[in-house]
Design brief:
The structure holds two protein chains of two kinds.
Chain A lengths: L3 H14 L4 E9 L4 E8 L6 H6 L16 H10 L4 E7 L3 E9 L11 H11 L4 E8 L2 E6 H8 L7 H17 L2
Chain B lengths: L6 H21 L6 E6 L2 H5 L2 H12 L6 E6 L11 E4 L6 E3 L4 H14 L16
Parallel strand pairs in B: 1-2
Antiparallel strand pairs in B: 1-3, 3-4
Chain lengths: 179, 130
């Protein structure tokens, strides 16, 4: 994965497939702690302890279309090689939380990438899911919340291409101010 | 055009879109939309499917294509990512492989606007993936 945004999109797709109705994503950059924390939390169907123990194995997947599952192993590898950490918690029927911490000053920490575009596309492609994204840096925080967005849109669907393009721009502009 | 930054900017866009939607509903049925599904598995994302999806979203309206763009998972064609499944109303879905933004432009121009097929179709005993 080339950037953090690609990881976020990837991990969030797991939440979509787990039948989540709510996905919370956090991105937090802290110079003081020399850390970049990414959290993806969902209320999907969760996993049994047995499955959970195997998700970081690249040769394990719940899919039937192919035999490898690289999303989580790649994120774990990328975070850990910067001197950061990776954790995943899950309860069956309650949801899953993935947390990756990168060391901000490390060479191998990937660039943030297009987080605004990623979150907007995720929201537009999944009209039935509440997506809440919080972006925090030393300059402040921005929250992108599809519940208030849907309220603002009224009867115009969030997956209308022009609305999706507007959402991309809105999220990108706000995030750019914080970088 | 002014930048979109707040919810009130978004509401402004919404009003513009709503006017167009109202016009459209009078002339066409809602189920006459083209469905575009961009594969967003790990393989797709690593190959740049997000840029492909953005390209479709940003260029459909200006080309006069009424479509809805969604995401799907990996369809098993990891070698040909980014893959995109396009369903025109009343037709069988077609899967296109290696859809870079340049290829997406060609698909919009040829397949979506003029109904010509383009290279890069993945032939398959196809089953839709939910």
């Amino acid at each position: 994965m080339q950037d953090i945004a690609a990881h976020v999109m990837d991990i969030a797709q797991n939440s979509v497939r787990a039948g989540a109705t709510r996905i919370e994503i956090e991105y937090r950059e802290s110079r003081k702690e020399d850390s970049l924390t990414v959290v993806v939390r969902d209320n999907g169907r969760g996993m049994t302890a047995e499955t959970l123990a195997r998700v970081t194995d690249p040769f394990f997947t719940s899919r039937t279309t192919r035999k490898v599952g690289l999303g989580i192993p790649l994120l774990k590898q990328n975070a850990e090689r910067t001197g950061g950490s990776f954790a995943i918690e899950s309860r069956e029927g309650e949801g899953t939380t993935v947390r990756a911490v990168f060391r901000l000053s490390d060479w191998d920490t990937p660039p943030a990438g297009d987080l605004g575009g990623t979150v907007a596309l995720l929201a537009a492609a999944n009209p039935g899911i509440d997506v809440v994204y919080r972006h925090e840096t030393g300059r402040g925080a921005y929250v992108f919340d599809t519940r208030e967005i849907r309220e603002a849109l009224g009867d115009v669907p969030i997956n209308n291409p022009e609305i999706a393009a507007a959402l991309e721009e809105m999220a990108r502009e706000n995030i750019r101010d914080l970088s | 055009m002014e930048k979109i930054k707040s919810l009130s900017d978004l509401k402004r866009i919404k009003e513009q879109v709503r006017e167009k939607l109202d016009l459209r509903e009078k002339s066409e049925q809602a189920d006459r939309l083209v469905q575009i599904k961009v594969a967003m598995g790990t393989c797709g994302i690593a190959s740049g499917s997000k840029e492909t999806m953005s390209y479709f979203i940003d260029h459909l309206a200006e080309n006069g294509v009424n479509a809805i763009v969604t995401q799907t998972g990996c369809m098993g064609y990891c070698y040909a990512e980014p893959t995109v499944e396009i369903t025109k109303p009343g037709r069988e879905p077609i899967v296109f492989g290696r859809v870079t933004p340049e290829k997406a432009a060609e698909i919009i121009e040829k397949y979506l606007k003029n109904d010509e097929l383009v290279e890069g179709i993945i032939p398959a005993n196809y089953q839709s993936i939910q």
